[in-house]
Amino acid sequence: MKIILMGLQGSGKGTQAKKISKKYNIPHISTGDMLRAEIAKKTALGERIKSIQQGELVPDPVIIDVIKDRINQFDCKNGFILDGFPRTIQQAKSLDKIVSVDYVIALEIQDSVAIERLSKRSQCRKCNYIYGANQRLKNNICKFCSGEVYTRKDDYPEAIKRRLEIYHKETEIILRYYENKNLLYRINGERSVEEVFDDITSILKK
Ligand SMILES: [Zn+2]
Q1: Can you give the pTM of this predicted structure?
Q2: CA 131 to centroid of ligand 1, rounded, Å
């Protein structure tokens, strides 16, 4: 069960990935989390990523190596869920050379919904916990550490709109690529977590 989960930030992708991981006992591989972990552990790779991050995306060969190592690990023997990868068509083609994917599930939400959900996010300055749109705090004080909770610059509507433009440009090409291989399933992500998850499990039965 080798799954790619695609979707805008705010599409509920992370939540669904965790639910799939639990139900089918396959690891949730989030490239964002993996790269952040490398940076935190100050590995050679982490240092390299950190120096790249100032400018742009992590180059394809670097991220592809990271993915290749990860999916060759023992816990991926029955499958995995990729979240945040592939980001480019080159990455998608490279992945094909490493492994054959079974399902590509795209959680689709309208831009207006993504903007609505993301602009309501906020983060604690102290412990970095991210509060979702439905976790608004009255006094902007973190419930875990009492730190100040604020809206990240990344989550201002203008910044979100810029991210959406980049996302659509790259993602549509990737989705068409998988559509041509008959691997793509588009799901309406504007519903409840449970409704979306029911759709995903019925796809995974096929
Ligand atoms: Zn906190």
Answers
A1: 0.82
A2: 10
What letter represents residue 121's amino acid?
A: R
DSSP count for the chain of H helices, then E strands: 8, 8
Domain ranges of the chain: 2-110+163-204
* Each residue's pLDDT tens digit, 76-98: 999 999 998 998 999 999 999 99
pLDDT digits 0-9 by tens, 29-43: 998 888 888 888 888
- Token pair recorded at residue 163: 């991210």
Between the CA of 15 and the centroid of ligand 1 the distance, in Å, is 21
Quote the CATH superfamily of domain 2-110+163-204: P-loop containing nucleotide triphosphate hydrolases (3.40.50.300)
> What one-character-per-residue DSSP string does 73-114 give?
SGGGTT-EEEES---SHHHHHHHHHH----EEEEEE--HHHH
Residue in the structure block whose two tokens are 């590509």: 104
Phi, psi of 135 (to 5 degrees): -120, 40
Q: Report the distance separating Cα 142 and Cα 148, nearest Å.
A: 6
- Coil, strand or helix: which one is 80? strand
